[in-house]
Amino acid sequence: VYTLSDPRSEILAKQCEELSYEKFRHDEYEFYRKFSAIAIDEIYKRKGIHVCTNVDFYSGLVYDMLGIPEDLYTLLFVIGRTVGWVAHNIESKLYSGRIVRPATKFVGELKEYKNIEDR
To answer: Rg of the chain over CA atoms, in angstroms?
Structure first.
């Protein structure tokens, strides 16, 4: 949806910067900022399209600085989107009479699940 900028990302980036000072991790935050600028520039050079960081670019760093365990990152991602996903399904059902399910095809390598302690 956002091509030139994502206002949510800009807000979170500012909060992330403030937190990085508080947590003595400003160098890490600066790495993210520089990486973002280089990646955006490189994508434009190679593909000729404008992209921007989205809100999730900084969320992992924020979670880490807040001491949130990595195992909860996906859960936090999903919780924040569940209302939107449900609203989309309700709208689809109300106006088209059916629920739209995007086609998916797993293209990764199948691996046996291992408990985190055994990884």
So the answer is: 18
